[in-house]
């Protein structure tokens, strides 16, 4: 089996380990903080059992056996094809960690970071093996939301990109490849625009926070669970995307321009949202809701797997 190293065993690292182990990969788990990797492996066991309950993992016990705890970073990187780094989200931490991994990992191994915002050129420029460094940005939680954004640096070798893409696909993920670096990559850029407009709408008193969420949850979100926004508008005009643009682009441009320059995440807007948000922002409640969300995502993932392919 292809060997994978997971460096950093927090929320994202243990989800990545779940992804790879559940698809037949041998996984080595490491964390610089003592005891974290061991606790992560126990959590991964629970993840695998939950996925099995939805028919997404055939043998959770066997999958868990494929995960070993590495004694140190060098041990973790022995013989691996890909390193998935999920350490602290700072330039300094990633620069230091990638330098160490570049020195220890096999020359053929791809070094991939789970970073959400830092582009690969920032932490890989000075490395001897910089041609094998890239970003493989997942969405939380990766074992339930399969998109992964492969974002190479300008000097990343095409062979490294292709190798990462093949490995992610074998692990059941849905990789996309960025053609050039962009802070925030694709998903976070899209999410940032939607969130900013959501805050502006509530801040302007147009609708309540709850009704705003309903609009996405029971409106756009239902369509977007199976189709992207461009696929969606293709069906909203008889002549497809060009016809939609001809009919609605002027109105859409006017709406976008109305928001340009308006601050979104202001203290007043946050206060307005919280004034109508009855639930307390407490860690225990967030933890319980996260578990509920994960179970719903698992059910949706199982449904999408079973659904027939859309017609061409």
- The run of helices and strands is EHEHHEHEHEHEEHEHHHHHH
Main β-sheet, spatial strand arrangement: 3-2-1-4-5-6-7-8
**Count of individual domains:** 2
Question: What integer value in Å does the Rg equal?
Answer: 21 Å
The appropriate CATH architecture of the largest domain is 3-Layer(aba) Sandwich
Largest sheet: 8 strands, mixed
Strands, total number: 8
Q: Helical amount among residues, as a percent range?
A: 40-55%
In CATH terms, what is the fold-level topology of the largest domain? Rossmann fold
Low-confidence stretches: none
Question: What is the C-level CATH assignment of the largest domain?
Answer: Alpha Beta
Dominant shape: globular
Q: Strand content of the residues, in percent?
A: 5-15%
Structure description:
The structure is a single chain. The chain has 312 residues and is of the alpha/beta class. The protein has 2 domains: 175 residues, NAD(P)-binding Rossmann-like Domain (Rossmann fold, 3-Layer(aba) Sandwich), CATH 3.40.50; 92 residues, N-(1-d-carboxylethyl)-l-norvaline Dehydrogenase, domain 2. 52% of the residues lie in helices and 12% in strands. The chain is built from 13 helices and 8 strands. An 8-stranded mixed sheet has the order 3-2-1-4-5-6-7-8, sandwiched between helices. Helix 1 links the parallel strand 1 and strand 2. The model has no long low-confidence stretch (mean pLDDT 93).
């Amino acid at each position: 089996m292809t060997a994978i190293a997971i460096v950093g065993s927090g929320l994202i690292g243990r989800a990545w380990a779940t992804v790879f182990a559940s698809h037949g990969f041998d996984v080595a788990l490491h964390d610089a903080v003592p005891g974290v990797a061991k606790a992560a492996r126990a959590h991964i066991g629970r993840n695998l059992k939950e996925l099995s309950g939805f028919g997404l993992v055939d043998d959770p016990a066997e999958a868990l056996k494929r995960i070993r705890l590495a004694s140190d970073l060098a041990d973790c990187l022995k013989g691996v094809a890909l390193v998935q780094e999920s350490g602290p989200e700072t330039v300094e931490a990633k620069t230091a960690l990638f330098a160490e991994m570049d020195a220890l990992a096999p020359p053929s191994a791809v070094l991939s970071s789970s970073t959400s915002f830092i582009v690969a050129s920032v932490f890989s420029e000075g490395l001897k093996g910089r041609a094998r460094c890239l970003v493989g940005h997942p969405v939380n939680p990766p074992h339930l939301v399969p998109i992964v954004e492969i974002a190479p640096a300008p000097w990343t070798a095409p062979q490294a990109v292709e190798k990462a893409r093949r490995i992610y696909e074998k692990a059941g993920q849905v990789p996309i490849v960025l053609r050039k670096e962009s802070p925030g990559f694709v998903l976070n850029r899209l999410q940032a625009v939607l969130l900013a407009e959501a805050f502006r709408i509530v801040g302007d008193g147009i609708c309540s926070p709850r009704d705003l969420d309903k609009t996405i949850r029971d409106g756009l979100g239902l369509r977007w669970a199976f189709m992207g926004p461009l696929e969606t508008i293709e069906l909203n005009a008889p002549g497809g995307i060009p016809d939609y643009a001809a009919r609605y682009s002027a109105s859409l441009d006017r709406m976008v321009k109305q928001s340009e320059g308006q601050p979104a995440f202001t203290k007043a807007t946050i206060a307005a949202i919280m004034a109508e948000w009855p639930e307390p922002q407490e860690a225990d409640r967030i933890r319980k809701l996260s578990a509920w969300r994960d179970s719903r995502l698992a059910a949706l993932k199982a449904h999408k797997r079973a659904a027939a392919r859309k017609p061409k």
